[in-house]
Amino acid sequence: MATIEERWLRLEPIKVGWLGMEWARFRREIQMAFDEGIERGVLDRRYEFLFEDDAGLPQGTAQAGIDSFSRLVDAGCLAVVGANYTDSAIALAEHANALRVPLISMCGTDLFHGEYCFRLGNGDVGDRDGRRRCRHRGEGDREEEQPRSDDRRQCTPDASVENAHPK
């Protein structure tokens, strides 16, 4: 029977792709999280990170982002994290689904969807019903909800704006 160390060395490391120039700055913090996963027994093998700076739009082109994603997939990445700009994520969604490689993004659009597209909340995008609460002071301290697409200036000048979060 193989020891844990022998099994550790025998198994190929998992490869995770990081798409976008912002990720390399956080390499140490990302490694700390993965190391903790190993210490807690969540990960059963070594890991390897592959970085691609060009996530596509808006700094580059959609094709450049697709090419970067494809390089990460071709290198054997089990999943790719990035494409955090909405334009980039929309351009990559169909490729993630077609290649069956999970793409995890913090983009702010419902147009990024599919079986292999995962979106992490960023700001108040995940609000329960996409509305915000506008509290009016004076005139009986009334409250009203307005769709997020409305401009905040539509609240009366003496109003405070708060996000409506579920409790």
Structure description:
- This protein has 167 residues and is of the alpha/beta class.
- The chain folds into 2 domains: 4-119, Rossmann fold (3-Layer(aba) Sandwich), CATH 3.40.50; 131-163, no CATH class.
- Helices cover 28% and strands 23% of the residues.
- The protein has 4 helices and 8 strands.
- It has helices at residues 4-10, 27-39, 62-74, 86-99; strands at 14-19, 47-52, 79-82, 103-105, 117-119, 131-136, 143-147, 159-163.
- The strands form 2 sheets. The protein has a 5-stranded parallel sheet. Strands 7-6-8 form a 3-stranded antiparallel sheet, with no helix packed on it.
- Helix 2 links the parallel strand 1 and strand 2 (47-52).
- Helix 3 (62-74) runs parallel beside helix 4 (86-99).
- The radius of gyration is 21 Å and the shape is elongated.
- The termini are far apart.
- 19% of the residues are buried.
- Residues 124-139 and 145-167 have low confidence and may be disordered.
Instruction: State the order of secondary-structure elements, H for helix, E for strand.
Output: HEHEHEHEEEEE
Give helix % range.
25-40%
Q: What fraction of the residues are assigned to beta strands by DSSP?
A: 15-25%
Task: Give the beta-strand count.
Answer: 8
Taking all residues together, what is the mean pLDDT?
A: 78
Distance between the termini: 51 Å
Largest sheet: 5 strands, parallel
CATH architecture of the largest domain: 3-Layer(aba) Sandwich
CATH homologous superfamily identity of the largest domain: Response regulator
Compute the number of helices: 4
Instruction: Identify low-pLDDT runs.
Output: 124-139, 145-167
Strand order across the largest sheet:
2-1-3-4-5
Give me the CATH fold name of the largest domain. Rossmann fold
